[in-house]
Amino acid sequence: MKNLLLLFSICLLMFSCNSKSEDKKEGSATDDLAAVNAAIDQMKNCLLEPTEQNLKELTSPNLTYGHSAGKIEDQAEFIRVLVTGENDYKAFEASEQVIKIEGNTAWVRHIMDATVGVAGEDLKPHLNVLTVWVKSDGKWKLLARQAVKV
Questions:
Q1: pTM exceeds cut of 0.70
Q2: 56 with 77: CB under 8 angstroms?
Q3: Domains and CATH numbers, the chain
């Protein structure tokens, strides 16, 4: 009887510890989802009001940024184009957003509608966008972006 009671107590303790571990994992996933959402909002703000500092903080040094017309930029070029106003985002809306997180990597898909000043003309791109974010030093950073015309 004592052995059965001891075995039951051990099983109960193991179940209790495992449940707490699973709760922490779920909390982490929820925290990561909120943090990715916050990074996406920060990126929207950075596109509308770009500075070298805020863009560097939010992007990976290994950034590859693909435009729907085929142009691909690295981090330095991406920052230069925005800070100089070569691409001047005046409005930015994202819809139909989906976020999936796998470990320290997240991918995000959305439809982008924007107004962007380019060469004195306001363009209104309507694009499917895929971004890839990586968690580095506890912060989510944009690693890759590719857009295609809808």
A1: yes
A2: no
A3: 2-149 (3.10.450.50)
